[in-house]
Hints:
Number of helices: 19
CATH class of the largest domain: Alpha Beta
Bound molecules: pyridoxal-5'-phosphate
Number of domains: 2
Structural class: alpha/beta
Helix content: 25-40%
Radius of gyration: 21 Å
Low-confidence stretches: none
Distance between the termini: 35 Å
Number of strands: 15
Oligomer: single chain
Strand content: 5-15%
CATH architecture of the largest domain: 3-Layer(aba) Sandwich
Strand order of the largest sheet: 1-4-5-15-10-11-14
Amino acid sequence: MAVKVFLDEKDIPRQWYNLAADLPTPLQPPLGPDGKPITPDMLAPVFPMNLIEQEVCTDRWVDIPEGILDLLYRWRPSPLYRAKYLEEVLDTPARIYYKNEGVSPPGSHKPNTAVAQAWYNKEFGIKRLVTETGAGQWGSALAFSCAILGLECKVYMVRISFDQKPFRRLMMETWGANCVASPSSETNAGRTILQEMPDTPGSLGIAISEAIEAAVSDTTGQTRYALGSVLNHVMLHQTIIGLEAKKQLEKIGEKKVDVVVGCAGGGSNFAGLSFPFVADKIAGAQIKIIPVEPTSCPTMTRAPFSYDHGDTAKMTPLLPMHSLGHGFVPPPIHAGGLRYHGMAPLVSQAIVEGLMEPLALHQVECYEAAIQWAKTEGFISAPETSHAIAAVIREAKQAKEEGKEKVILFNWSGHGLMDLTGYQAFLEGKLVDYPLPDEEMQKSIASMDGLPKPSTAKSGKW
Ligand SMILES: *Cc1c(COP(=O)(O)O)cnc(C)c1O
């Protein structure tokens, strides 16, 4: 029985898959402050035009430039593993497979888009990228990408993580990035907040505002902003994961996948694995496709499909997405990458269509799953990834009850070697669940009152 399936570099996928081409109900456009669809030139100070074109592209297949493939070969194709040791312990008839995205230099799926975004920016003549980071996974992916392409990189890191997670910051600095705590005194947004709340721990919303301001206020025009999830072009770049997985499953003779699972913060690693299988489902295949989120930040399972801003300071256009409201402050769970108020428009529209079955899980169950994983498969998972593992264990147990030989595929989105404080809390018995009280959620959702509502029309096929 094969435990690992490799692809030769020559067999790497040479095109990304774009779900926007196949969604039965088309994606709805982002809106500007006047409620009208935004035009590409409105985004030009923030992103380079080649990425803006990709953001609105509806071609089914998009060629991956050779220059980007050259960057991806550093760790891709990533191996597909069979979770044989977990299967044995669960005594399940299911066959469980996972893509190991922890093999990238920064240790997660995020560099799949970070190297592509850095490459397109460089092609466009940009010299410097600015971004924000919460726990540091995205910041380190962009720092790595800028290092190998010779771009400058600036990262606004949420104050509390900056103080509590020095190792991710040191990774960014090792790759040559300049990382400052947010709010900082370098931007108007940061200075305003520091004046009002000198001791604030910061938030992703504030850090996004600082990064966008820093990018658009460079008068030389050589700086742009980069975002690590949510946007269409990010989902596109991540589909290389699912396209590789298809080739690998075929290589070992698996003809059909029954269940596809990924954890979802902004939606990119889940989309990257699942979208090629969503295409099969649209074409008639029977596949259960499960994005998993924390119960403390229940965007897909409890929040409405609405137009909302991507950031707290309302600097971004309005995106059609499941959202808890741009002012939402998630409880302090350890899976920092899953603490985002919105969800990628492409994932949201597919949920509206009924193509996906979102699931919310408590963090204690996820850590239990991550510990079981560590003691069987061996790898120590990121707290985000543990949500996918817990859902897979549920599915494998159900397959046992039903006596069915299901094929389960999931995305092991990254390792947790920089996130051991969460494991420490669990092992010391200090980890608690944070179900979100309805009252609190309604208050946050009310911040979207008065914003336009996207259509919830669907084909009715699923
Ligand atoms: C950032 C991150 C996530 C969540 O982000 P998505 O865009 O939803 O994929 C999940 N897993 C890991 C390891 C991450 O670093």
